[in-house]
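Protein modeling request. Please complete all fields; requests missing the sequence field cannot be processed.
Requester role: graduate student
Desired output: 3D structure, token encoding
Chains: 1
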Amino acid sequence: MAMFGSEQLTVHFPDSAEMPEGTWHFKLRALIYDFLVLAFGEIATIGSEQFVYWDPTNPRVCLSPDAFVYFGAKNEHFRSWKVWERGVPQVAVEVISGSESELGWDEKLERYLQLGVSELVWFDPETSEHPLRIWDLVDGELRERGLLQPSAQSRHLGGYWLPVAEAGGLTLRLSRDEHGRTLFPTAAEHHADARRAAEAALSAAEQRIAELQAELNRKG
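Delivered output (220 residues):
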């Protein structure tokens, strides 16, 4: 609610809007959200496509990152994100669509600076050369890093951002190492790994039982 003289004006902050989204863009956004929630959901709030507001007097200046991370509160459901109520997200991810223009990105970059995000990740799945770019908040400015290799270390998430080719196209993943050998898993990947580990443990136990039984048979 904004105050003007003796009058009180209610400012409406929309929770949603009609924004068309391609299928691959949706898959990428869902993938990033999935592994971020699994990795950080106990210590951070994760968002995806919700409106983020930072000016309590102007709902027209906002952003809707494809993913963002705010450390300081356990993950929960929310309809929109108001900085003056919840705090500034430390990390934001933008998956670039084919309709994104350079002018549009310049405007968006300025808004991210106003928001105060510390790490801004830009990913274009349709660009084979330099699909990953990162900006860091330094001395009140968002400065782009000069990346010399495909991966880039996240200064907040304890891993490395890197493009990974999958069936259907290029995806953005977070890895514990710069070469992508140990990816932060999605929920489905985590469950599959746990199932394989359980099956391997069962197989090893059955083999050991068979060995003990064979040894008893020899002694008997």
